[in-house]
Amino acid sequence: MLFSEKIMRGAWLVALLSILVIAFGCSGQRGGEGVGGGGAVRLQGAGATFPNPLYQKWLSEYGKANPNVRIDYQSVGSGAGIRQIQEQTVDFGASDAPMKDDDLGKARGGQLLHIPTVLGAVVLTYNLQGVEQPLRFPPDVIADIFLGRVKTWDDARIKADNPGANLPAAPITVVHRSDGSGTSAVFTDYLSKVSSEWKEKVGTGTSPTWPVGLGGKGNEGVSGLVKQTPNSIGYVELAYAVQNKFPVALIKNKSGNFVEPSLEAVTAAAAESISATPEDMRVSITDAAGANAYPIASYTYILVYKDQKDAAKGKALVDFLWWGIHEGQNFTKDPQYPYAALPAEIVRRAEAQINSVASGGRALRTAQ
Amino acid sequence: MRNLQPNAPTPAAAQGASARSWNWRRTLAPTGNTGDTVFRSILFACAFILLLIVIIMIGAMAVNSLPSLRAFGFGFLTSQEWNPIAGKFGALPFIYGTILSSLLALFISVPLSLGIAIFLVEQAPRALARPVGFLVELLAAIPSVVYGLWGIFVLAPALRETVEPSLARWFGWLPFFQGNITGIGLFTGGIILAIMITPIITAVVRDVLAAVPVSQREAAFALGATKWETTRVVLTNGAAGIAGAIILGLGRAIGETMAVTMVIGNRAQISASLFEPSYTIASVLANEFTEATGELYLSALIELGLILFLVTFTVNGVARLLVWSVAHRAGGSSVGRAG
After folding, report:
1. Which of A173, A206, A224 sits opposite B153 (nearest CB)?
2. Distance CA B127, CA B132 (A)
3. What is the tens place of the pLDDT at every residue in A214-262?
4. pLDDT tens, B215-239?
5. Angle, to 10 degrees, between the axis of helix B295-329 and the axis of helix B34-64?
6. Interchain pair B84, A78: CB under 8 A
7. Which CATH number fits domain A121-276+284-297: 3.40.190.10, 1.10.357.10, 3.40.50.300, 3.40.50.2300?
8. A209: left (phi > 0), else alpha (psi -120 to 50), else beta?
9. Which terminus of chain B is less hemmed in, N or C, by CB atoms within 10 Å?
10. Looking at the predicted structure, is the pLDDT value of residue A292 above 80?
């Protein structure tokens, strides 16, 4: 009896002490955060899941070189990232698709800038037994498969571009993303450009209403369904397909060439679209011209306010972004991070964007 | 709620105490001991915090779903169109998918769970009952994403190759078993839910049956009842608790998200065929919430959450009522509260 009472008293003491420690620990940290000059600067970011593996690598490498700056990134999805930067609950947001005008208008901290960081692409993957060569698709056939118009694999329009392939007389099972996703946005943006019927009936968005097919959650959900369902076709991110060595289709681009999805073909699509890229960098590069351009590609962006309230945080942020569009690009050469690097001209334009970030009227990048 | 002001005793209490009025001071300090009062106050605070959280949650969801309520009104519940791009939102396919998948799960799981529980309590030798009972509890602890992955990679292909073609062959004349067989859809969703809730229902029913006094069984045997008839006596005695167990399972089935999302096909449609893909409220929330931009879209999703909340509330309320009525019919026997 007495013994257990002692234990109880001990437990209470420990609990009380730990509460005190946690309370003081937290308040201590909060006190340090606001201090500019010598103290550590902490930055919070949130948004797109697609570039998350690369961003985490960036943060850990950048943190090693700059121990006085600590940056955290949460991959909560582009939509949530946009909401959080609008509400100013994070220091930077991240999104795969550029923000729309009325979303920009809802940003509480003034003008938001789009800083492109890397490029990604969407590929078609399929499950067909006995088909060895990669399949080749022209854009109108892709649109009609996802519209439910081309229903079987031995359809004459699929056969036309794949003369040697042993296509079964089986119905096509379409697989798409069920969760809201930048991948879906890029894919539907492409379909809207190549098919007026798609544009009219479905449109472009992160969660479109798909005319046919099964929905899988995430890249892993879609690829799981494709793997498990014979005679199915679905779309996933290029990075995901490369890492898992999925069969991917060649797609006919605007110049009439069938292009295999590759990092070089994605960078080529961005380079070919430079003349159409506005100063604020909000651009869609799907269905790009150019002989080697892969047609279903897009930028991914970091979103920052042009006017930074806290000069110390703002300075740390622009330095990090500058590092990201220069040194950060080198990580795309590592096969572990299959993202396409920015073309040189886009890096130059992104520099201009970063240089325009200011606090209290003073440009932060050049300030010492 | 009106008794929240501790220093304002109601007139009735001041007059000295009808049984119905609630004397706050006596409630908090029944013994007059300071330590007891503090202890009791803390416990009361805990209970009120729970109540407060529920009220705040409902309030927040109601406020945030106002734009959607204003835009669609009652039509939200009856519209079948869910198109975020066009800004049109209707909840009916999700309500349909949620209810149907849960009912399908109960339809499979209830007989199975009752069978397992009766076997464990009434029939199985002790050497077998212990390990089987342990296994059931182990199944209840598996995370739902594991069930989901197993569903995609094992269950769905198996159903596509064996069960679904046979169902289509023998019962294809029924509208429930027609259409394209992919292994992904309402049928698979219902089965995975059934597998997930069976351990829960079984574990609770087993405890309920075990709580039925041995004297009941002895009395039945003494009257010359067979094992089957005795089991029926035991079941009648535990009816309220069994109903509670089923509701617990239903609650889990309605709210289950990950596993269902992975196998149900995620398509907002109403189709008589169980082979067709479907969609549940919990799934669409998990799928679309993170990427929802625009006030109306977000608001429609929150309203779906509110509906899920109300559906769960209603189900639980009806269940309580059921349990209560059964308990009263059975003469308010002591085992009723085990669930």
Report:
1. A224
2. 9
3. 999 888 889 889 988 999 999 999 988 888 888 999 999 999 999 999 9
4. 989 999 999 999 999 999 999 888 8
5. 130
6. no
7. 3.40.190.10
8. beta
9. N
10. yes
A47-77 burial, b if ≥16 CB within 10 A, otherwise e? bbbbbebbbeebbeebeeebeebbbebbbbb
Backbone dihedral angles phi then psi of residue A173, each to the nearest 5 degrees: -100, 115
Q: Which pLDDT value is given to residue A279?
A: 87
Give A28's pLDDT tier (boundaries 50, 70, 90). Answer: very low
Interface test with A, best of B160, B293, B296 (most A CBs within 10 A): B293
Name the residue type at position B299. S
pLDDT band at A35 (very low <50, low <70, confident <90, very high): very low
| Contact residues, chain A to chain B, C-beta under 8 Å | 76-80, 82-83, 100, 103, 171, 173, 178-182, 202-210, 213-217, 221, 224-225, 228-229
Domain residue spans of chain B? 68-338
Query: Which of helix, strand or coil describes residue A314?
Result: helix
Q: Does domain B68-338 have CATH number 2.40.40.10?
A: no
Are A217 and B286 within 8 A, CB to CB? Answer: yes
B180–A207 C-beta distance less than 8 A:
no
User: Nearest-CA residue of chain A relative to B82?
Assistant: A209
Query: Does the predicted TM-score (pTM) go above 0.95?
Result: no
Q: What is the CATH number of domain A41-119+298-363?
A: 3.40.190.10
**pLDDT top residue among A80 and B27:** A80
